[in-house]
Design brief:
Layout (H helix, E strand, L loop, with lengths): L1 H14 L8 E7 L18 H8 L2 E7 L5 H10 L3 H4 L12 H13 L4 H7 L3 E6 L13 E2 L24 H13 L3 E6 L11 H7 L6 H26 L6 E7 L17 E2 L2 E2 L8 H4 E7 L13 E2 L3 H9 L15 H5 L3 E7 L13 E8 L2 E6 L19 E5 L15 H14 L15
Parallel strand pairs: 1-5, 1-6, 2-10, 3-4, 3-5
Antiparallel strand pairs: 2-9, 6-9, 7-8, 11-12, 12-13, 13-14
Helix pairs in contact: 8-9
Length: 452
């Protein structure tokens, strides 16, 4: 009762904030990085000192998940707080790179009808800057007041275009924006989603030399170096906020869009068939290396650093940002406010999907469905579906025809021991949860339910 009263008082206070009191929001999102690949997550070789410091001053959820193991639907779910079968963005393209200028228009137009925290913040007086990955048209189409991405397919716009230079070529567009926001004395939202550590893995020579050693494959060394390069850019951004005196009233949120593992590091596993430079059970797959990410919230004025064991989800960011800033989020959002410990404790299951990578079925968001999954306490269930997949890319999923897979993540975090035959009761229980959450047989999207 006491916690609920405190939460109510805090919410009423947030709603009455003046422009000067409203917190700034900074979202840092890495691109194609495994959940294990940070110093603060225990990696023995990859050095991420700046993100380690952020983790030390954050509420850090080591059991965070994204809605989809693929960048475009993952980002769309972050922005809208909804699942891919609800907002309709289920893959990276409608038909590969074919006729994208025409085929992608209805997908983007349908997506833009959904409320987003970007649009609600700018309507509330925030300035908002986009840099890095962005798929849904231009920065202005997404509701940002400032940004880098033009989004025009006729000029090569697809997943960020000009915005993809951020971090790799410095942070000047961001520092210019911060100069402007400071001069205007307005609260701001900063979307920093650089094309890092994503391929091309071309790190600075000094970092590649650091990670190159006898017995380590070149692609692994390059990926490790890219992770540290990304970390350096995060340090530059966070240091700049500190120098400007903005750190105290800024909520910094960190997550990754989806996972990754270099091929040479997984060649010994017969299940890790290789595709396009990464291991199959990582990016684009519903295994932990595809969907799991640390999620961090750092807000010195309001949040005590901690490492809760609670499950966190990317769809939680919209209600969390709404609670911090006082904007009125849609009442039917399925996520929770991650700052609310009671809400976190009341949820024991999170859900997600995996669709085909380079094709969508507009008007039928389950048409390209490959997996539904849930994580419930220590257990994880994958349910295999066989949606439409284009011939060119179907080898991503075709190796796996097993109808269900069950893992105990506490004992087996890397999913080496499949247990569905040994625990049919747990399979039935989790399958029932998934069916109640979303039933593609009916062709009806059903949002993730609170409290499950």
């Amino acid at each position: 009762m006491k916690k609920r009263l405190i939460a109510l008082i805090a919410a009423l206070h947030t709603l009455s904030l003046t422009a000067a009191e409203k917190p700034n929001i900074v979202i840092i999102m890495s691109d194609d990085q495994g959940w294990t690949d940070y110093g603060f997550m225990g990696h023995e070789d990859i050095k991420t000192p700046h993100l380690d410091k952020l983790a030390q001053r954050s509420v850090m959820f080591g059991r965070g998940y994204v809605a989809s193991p693929l960048c475009r639907p993952s980002l769309a779910s972050v922005i809208t707080g909804r699942m891919p079968f609800d907002h309709g963005v289920t893959g990276n393209d409608v038909d590969g790179k074919n006729n994208r200028a025409t085929l992608d228009i209805p997908v983007r137009e349908a997506f833009q009808k959904f409320p987003s925290f970007v649009k609600l913040l700018t309507a509330d007086g925030y300035l908002a800057h986009q840099s890095g990955k962005w798929w849904e048209g231009s920065f202005a189409d997404g509701g940002f007041t400032h940004g880098m991405t033009h989004g025009d397919p006729e000029r090569g716009g697809r997943h960020g275009d000009a915005g993809l230079t951020i971090g790799r070529e410095g942070l000047k567009p961001i520092t210019d924006f911060l100069d402007h926001a400071t001069a205007e004395k307005k609260p701001f939202l900063l979307w920093y989603a650089p094309f890092l550590p994503h391929t091309p893995h071309n790190p600075p020579p000094r970092l590649l030399e650091k990670y190159t050693k006898p017995g380590r494959a070149d692609d692994v060394a390059r990926y490790y170096a890219m992770c540290e390069w990304f970390d350096e850019t995060c340090g530059e951004l966070l240091d700049d906020l500190g120098r400007r005196g903005l750190g105290e009233n800024t909520l910094v949120i960190y997550l990754c869009d989806n996972g990754w593992a270099a091929t040479s590091g997984n060649a010994a596993d017969p299940n890790q068939k290789l595709w396009k430079g990464y291991a199959l059970r990582t990016k684009s797959s519903p295994f932990e290396m595809g969907i799991r990410t640390p999620i961090m919230l750092s807000w010195p004025r309001r949040l005590e650093p901690s490492r809760p064991a609670d499950l966190a989800h990317a769809i939680d960011l919209f209600p969390t940002i709404a609670a911090a800033t006082g904007i009125r989020a849609p009442e039917d959002l399925p996520g929770i406010n991650l700052m609310d410990e009671t809400a976190r404790k009341g949820r024991d299951t999170v859900f997600g999907v995996s669709h085909s990578v380079h094709n969508m079925t507009p008007g039928d968001s389950d048409g390209a469905l490959q997996y539904l999954w849930c994580v419930s306490e220590d257990w994880k269930l994958l349910v295999r579906h066989h949606g439409t997949d284009t011939t060119q890319y179907k080898n991503i999923h075709i190796w796996d025809t097993q109808p269900v897979r069950l893992y105990n993540l506490k004992d087996d975090p890397h999913e080496e021991n499949e247990l569905s035959v040994a625990h049919p009761g747990i399979v039935a229980k989790l399958r029932k949860k998934i069916d109640a959450w979303h039933s593609p047989k009916k062709g009806i999207g059903k949002s993730q339910e609170k409290g499950q």
